[in-house]
Amino acid sequence: MSDSPTLIQQAYLPAAALLEQLGCSPDGLSAAEAAGRLAAYGPNRIAQQAQSGMLQELYGRLKNPLNGLLLVLAGVSWASGDRRAAIVIFVMVVLSVGLAFLQEHRSGKAAEKLRAMFRTRAAVLRRGGGWTETGIEDLVPGDIVKLAAGDLIPADLRILSARTLHVNQSALTGESLPVDKSDAVPDSAAREPLALSNICFMGSSVISGAATGLVLRTGRNTFFGGIADRTTANPPQQTSFDRGIAGFTRLMIAFIAVMVPLVFLINGLTKGSWIEALLFALAVAVGLTPEMLPMIVTVNLAKGAMAMAQKRAIVKRLSSIQNFGAMDVLCTDKTGTLTQNKVILQYHLDFEGEENDRVLEYAYLNSYHQSGLQNLMDEAILSHARRPEHVGHIAAFTKVDEIPFDFERRRMSVILSTPEGGLLMITKGAVEEVLAVCDSYRIGEETGKLDPRHLADARREMAKLNSEGFRVLAIACRQLTAPLPVYDETAETGLTLLGYAAFLDPPKDTAADAIAQLKASGVAVKILTGDNDLVTRAVCKQVGVDADDILLGRDIAALSPEALGAAVEKCAVFAKLAPEQKSAVIDALRSRGHVVGFLGDGINDGPALKSADVGISVDTAVDIAKESADIILLEKSLTVLCDGAIEGRKVFGNIVKYIKMGASSNFGNMFSVLGASLFLPFLPMLPIQVLANNLLYDISQTAIPSDNIDPEYLKAPRRWDLSNLTRFVLMIGPISSIFDYATFFVMLWVFNAWNAPGLFQAGWFVESIVTQTLIIHIIRTAKIPFFESRASAQLSLATLAITCTGAAIPYTALGRTLGFLPLPALYWPILIGLGLGYAVLTQLVKSWFVRRYGM
Predict the structure, then answer these.
(1) Helix/strand/coil (H/E/C) assignment for every residue in 701-725
(2) Three-state secondary-structure class, residue 748
(3) Cα gap 172→163, rounded to integer Å
(4) Are the C-beta atoms of 208 and 402 separated by less than 8 Å?
(5) What pLDDT is recorded for position 389?
(6) Distance between CA atoms of 386 and 761, rounded to whole angstroms?
(7) Chain center to CA of 740
(8) Of 698, 706, 773, which is closest to residue 292 (Cα–Cα)?
(9) Of 47, 44, 49, the residue nearest 627 (C-alpha)
(10) Residue range 461-503, pLDDT digits in tens
(11) Which of 279, 436, 750, 821 could make a disulfide contact with 759, Cβ separation 3.0–4.6 Å?
(12) Cβ–Cβ contacts within 10 Å for residue 86, how many?
């Protein structure tokens, strides 16, 4: 844990003394020194980031309450002398846990290989090697690192130099407003480390500005690591699906808690053998337990993650796959998603709209000398202006200082020494924000005073360019007569407007088709951008997004929560948004019952990524965006998101299939077991027979994750609906009891099994296996099975194999061991008739249910 008093002491030491204390120099550590310290201090990661070992993964699967219940039942069976039952129960647990573990482990390894491609990195100073990049887990105390806007603070560090540094410490303090940081030693004594203005902490992020810092603490020794050691990290917010699964599990356990004592008492009182009644009740408890549910959920989610990995998407949180399937609104930024993210500099214009090379030259000087985060427009300027016909004596300018970009000013400036020995400040930024600090303009060698008429003309020209899809930056300058004591935003005044740089980011060829696919599958696409409304409208119209009504950031600020909720339903495009306004839009959509995904990769997208049900970023995103996301795309494409939505619906569909089958079967079995226990002079099935029946049924269910999903099911978002599931179980479950009682009648009055328990039990065993297994094909689809919808080959083979196995058991040595008698030949045509009747009645009721309530 971080030693806070020592950290405070280090904040007040002179920089030279602190370097000496840590045994390093202003030139950084050598590679050998860094390697030695890494061995001594360990990787720079907190405990929660450590990889789970195989034993931990297995424990994670075992600690599910359903598995715990089964192990308790196995222990009671063993202690009661029924060791065969205990072994069968244990085999069920191994089957469930083993399959889930193997699939998730395989998925995790595949994702880890992809995750290695985008390790979060930091710029570190190495003595003898200069600035180089390394993974943040390799940082050690004594390293000197460079920070820029968008970076995560990689460790606890002391600032050595800084310019307009603003840091978000909300992860540590809960305070959403950024705090100022500098290299100055604090004037007054601080009692709390977080109050130190020259210390930055792991877990925070750079909002704007630039700095270099000396690493003081890494890993679990950081302030953040200390918090993690003292408190349990908050788990990810549960989705409606997570809550639904947990609620269903609790419901089944409660149901078992009521049923099992009832079965125990009825059989104890009617049969006279309380030990036998206890063992039978325990077997019934196992039969009612949906023990395959953890495996079905995990394997389905892991299969979805594997499918996404093949499409070059890394799933950081498995449950986000299902959130994809439930997502009905996708919020995304514009740049790089709708557009090619390949900005080209189309025009460099003077104040009157004519091509001007000075505008290009000054824009190049600004982009070339800035030390902060270079965006696509900077890259376009540098790429365009490197051609010799545009740039002449640029090498003669040297950098003096800079005023970094931040999201409030929306501009940045560099201060340069000119070839003539003067000082020149060049400012580049959003047009409105640059015009606000200009009082004159230059055309050629002539200058003039800006007046309202000029400003109106400039805004009309910008509106014209924006409406054609161009993004525009203004370029301005100021000749300084003498150095200033400090260069900050107060120096950005009295500037001369030189002109504009106009950029084009063309729409992606695939964007329109991908948006159409998302709309067709029930996912509304909404654009959330910090860009202006004119550019946004032009791009949106080209890709098929309704941009007639655009809600601007300034409008959102004036709306009440209720009014914002109504507005986000109607509007598809939101422009000129601040970071907190993107989050506000997402929160408003979620409050209206929507499941929201957000795709973003910028510094200002972190809050929105955390607010969304599914946070999606890309491997080229800034650190804070990648760390906030649930899913990382290795290609920023809406097409991958279409695939993700489909995978999520497949996952949900196959999980719900198992729940519907298991819950319906269990509900029906409740009536059958209770009724048979009341009137039979013997147990309806021996405990080992119940367990064998359940084991065979479980084996058939292991193929469900491979099953096909009807195309119609995939056309709309799918989310958990416990009321609809309950209705389905109440409708379908009792049908199985009708045919169970018909089987009882046949076995008792046709085959006179009153005095032949083994014959009765064999008849119900086979009927139960055949009907439970084959009914899977009816419940798995809203259509007519076999004719309109077919199961996967794996599921078809599994059900056929289990049906044949169950039918054959009474004629085998295993059947004799289980206590069965061979079934007479007449049983089989009767069984076929009962099975057909069951299938037809279930199909009719299901079809009515689908028409009334949906699947």
Answers:
(1) HCCHHHCCCCCCHHHCCCCCCHHHH
(2) helix
(3) 23
(4) no
(5) 53
(6) 87
(7) 45
(8) 698
(9) 49
(10) 888 887 777 889 999 999 998 999 889 889 999 999 999 999 8
(11) 821
(12) 21
Angle, helix 83-115 to helix 274-288, in steps of 10 degrees: 20
Where residue 200 falls among pLDDT bands split at 50, 70, 90? very high
In this prediction, residue 1 has a pLDDT band, given cuts at 50, 70 and 90, of very low
Helices and strands: H and E segment counts in the chain = 31, 23
**Nearest alpha carbon to residue 647 among 107, 129, 147:** 107
Neighbours of 457 (CB within 10 A): 13
Looking at 143-192, list the stretches that DSSP marks H as alpha helix, in order from N- to C-terminal side: 170-173
Q: Pairing between strand 205-217 and 470-480?
A: unpaired
Residues 6+ apart with CB under 8 A from 305: 107, 110, 111, 315, 318, 321
Q: For residues 805 and 239, what is the distance between their CA atoms, to the nearest angstrom?
A: 40
Structure tokens at 159: 């600032």
CB 210 within 8 A of CB 372: yes
Any idea what the Cα angle at residue 751 is, between residues 749 and 752, rounded to 5°? Answer: 60
Q: Is 342 helix (H, G, I), strand (E, B) or coil?
A: coil
Pairing of strands 144-148, 411-417: unpaired
Residue 783 to residues 225, 724, 774, 794: CA-CA distances in angstroms? Answer: 54, 18, 15, 20
pTM for the complete prediction? 0.68
Half-sphere exposure of 434 (CA within 13 A, CB side): 29
Q: Where are the alpha helices (DSSP H) in 370-510?
A: 376-385, 431-435, 452-467
**Pairing of β 411-417 and β 524-528:** unpaired
pLDDT digits (tens, 9 = 90+) for 358-380: 999 999 999 988 876 567 788 88
Active site residues: 333
Closest CA to 286 of 96, 107, 105: 96
Main-chain dihedrals φ then ψ at residue 800, nearest 5 degrees: -65, -45
Instruction: Kindly give the pairing relationship between strand 179-181 and strand 156-168.
Output: antiparallel
Contacts of 272 (CB under 8 A, 6+ apart): none
The count of other CB atoms within 10 Å of the CB of residue 619 is 18
Strand partners, 785: 789
pLDDT of residue 729: 86
Report the distance separating Cα 310 and Cα 104, nearest Å.
Answer: 15
- For the record, the structure tokens of 484 come out as 């200033």
Segment among 62-71, 77-86, 460-469, 773-782 with least mean pLDDT: 62-71
Tokens of 644: 């993700």
Of how many residues is the chain composed? 855
- Terminus-to-terminus CA distance in the chain, angstroms? 53
Q: How far apart are alpha carbons 201 and 186 in whole angstroms?
A: 16
Instruction: In whole angstroms, give the CA distance from residue 580 to residue 604.
Output: 8
Q: What is the mean pLDDT of residues 514-535?
A: 87
CA distance 362 to 391: 10
Q: How far is CA 847 from the centre of its chain?
A: 35
Q: CA-CA distance, 671 to 676, in Å (whole number)?
A: 8
